[in-house]
């Protein structure tokens, strides 16, 4: 029921883009790759179409969507006033994994995109398939991650098929997404700007260019989450088996696995390559230890893989919260519900 099209240099991409554009113009949804995760897009000015995103995902309707654009110039069509910091960010980080939350012009975007807020999150994705689609469509695309609500975001088209196959008409398969974690959401209506969700453009990268940026700690997030970052209040992905976080230390992990197995647990281990020889019941690599780009790119795939095993518990090694580590630890903490392994 879902048409699944591979877009790469070996096929007639033009036909696939034309089909995707027709489906979007007919008010339906299309899944497409971005450099962060796959998105589920609908024309952002068509309220009926945007509602289909919420239906397919099972997403609460008060959680606003990100608007994707194919050229920087379009921002002025939707945004009342573009702050100077936003102009700098667009210049330096677009196309790229940075969503800017700004004051929206009334009555242009579909109501369900903004969920009634007077702001909207906008980004220009850095992916050839997403950009081709947007530039041929010549309209903005509202697009959350293309997963069922409560599952990890899809980093491969097959993840989209697993979650939404049969519910959506069209998937463009552009291979694995590079970054693997959702974009940084930066609220530039606030002075200094606030990171509502950490991602590929890090606090450090931003501060080098625009000066101080607030990145709320875990506890502070609870304070700022209403009503600024509506998405934060929803329960995030939790695999079928509970996740416990643990330091990235081979001896500690080896002991933890043995102790859990002695208690009758089937242990899935999410850890770097050098933990491969530990005798866990299931093992999923997250790349070379502390190479945060590799960890970000493999994390959701590994979490999804755990759900296909008979593991009764998942041990996940951590990293520091510097750079991309902030985004990785933010997603890991959520998957674990903040729980750490204690001997
Ligand atoms: O990388 C990404 O951002 C991916 C790809 C597809 O672009 N999209 C994505 O969308 O992750 P979604 O809907 O899963 O996450 C959007 C986040 C939510 O946490 C939402 O609450 C927040 O952005 N958000 C959207 N509009 C907002 C607004 N006006 N004010 C505050 N937060 C907003
Ligand atoms: Mg999402």
Please identify which CATH superfamily of the largest domain we are dealing with. DHBP synthase
- Looking at the overall shape, the CATH architecture of the largest domain is Alpha-Beta Complex
Major pleated sheet: 10 strands, mixed
Unreliable segments of 5+ consecutive residues: none
Silhouette: globular
CATH domain fold name of the largest domain: DHBP synthase
Ligands (ions, cofactors included)? threonylcarbamoyladenylate, magnesium ion
The strand order across the widest sheet is: 1-8-2-3-7-4-6-5-9-10
Overall SS class: alpha/beta
**Nearest-integer average pLDDT:** 94
Radius of gyration: 20 Å
What is the percent of helical residues? 25-40%
* Residues in β-strands, percent: 15-25%
Please, how many helices? Answer: 12
Identify the CATH class of the largest domain. Answer: Alpha Beta
Count all strands and give the number. Answer: 14
EC number: 2.7.7.87
Subcellular location: Cytoplasm
Binding site for L-threonine: 36, 68, 123, 183
Pfam families: Sua5_C, Sua5_yciO_yrdC
């Amino acid at each position: 029921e879902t048409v699944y099209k591979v877009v790469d240099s070996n096929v007639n991409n033009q036909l696939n883009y034309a089909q995707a554009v027709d489906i979007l113009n007919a008010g339906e949804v299309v899944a497409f790759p971005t450099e962060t995760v796959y998105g589920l897009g609908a024309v952002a000015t068509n309220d009926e179409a945007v509602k289909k995103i919420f239906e397919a995902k099972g997403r609460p309707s008060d959680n606003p969507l990100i608007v994707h654009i194919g050229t920087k110039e379009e921002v002025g069509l939707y945004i009342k006033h573009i702050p100077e910091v936003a102009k700098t960010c667009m210049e330096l980080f677009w196309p790229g994994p940075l969503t800017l939350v700004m004051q929206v012009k009334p009555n242009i975007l579909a109501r369900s995109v903004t969920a009634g807020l007077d702001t909207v999150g906008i980004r220009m994705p850095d992916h050839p398939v997403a950009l081709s689609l947007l530039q041929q469509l010549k309209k903005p695309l509202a697009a959350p991650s293309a997963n069922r609500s409560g599952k990890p975001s899809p980093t491969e088209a097959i993840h989209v098929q697993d979650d939404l196959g049969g519910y959506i008409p069209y998937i463009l398969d552009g291979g694995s997404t590079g970054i693997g974690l959702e974009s940084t959401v930066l609220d530039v209506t606030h002075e200094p700007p606030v990171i509502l969700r950490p991602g590929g453009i890090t606090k450090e990268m931003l501060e080098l260019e625009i000066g101080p940026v607030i990145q709320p700690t875990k506890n502070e997030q609870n304070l700022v989450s209403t009503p600024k970052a509506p998405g934060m209040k929803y329960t995030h992905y939790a695999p079928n088996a509970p996740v416990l976080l643990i330091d990235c230390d081979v001896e500690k992990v080896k002991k933890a696995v043995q102790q859990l197995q002695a208690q009758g647990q089937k242990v899935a281990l999410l850890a770097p390559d050098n933990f491969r020889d530990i005798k866990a019941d299931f093992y999923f690599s997250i790349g070379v230890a502390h190479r945060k780009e590799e960890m970000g790119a493999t994390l959701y795939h590994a979490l999804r893989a755990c759900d296909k095993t008979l593991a009764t518990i998942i041990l996940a090694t951590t990293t520091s919260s510097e750079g991309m580590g902030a985004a990785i630890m933010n997603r890991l903490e959520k998957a674990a519900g903040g729980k750490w392994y204690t001997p």
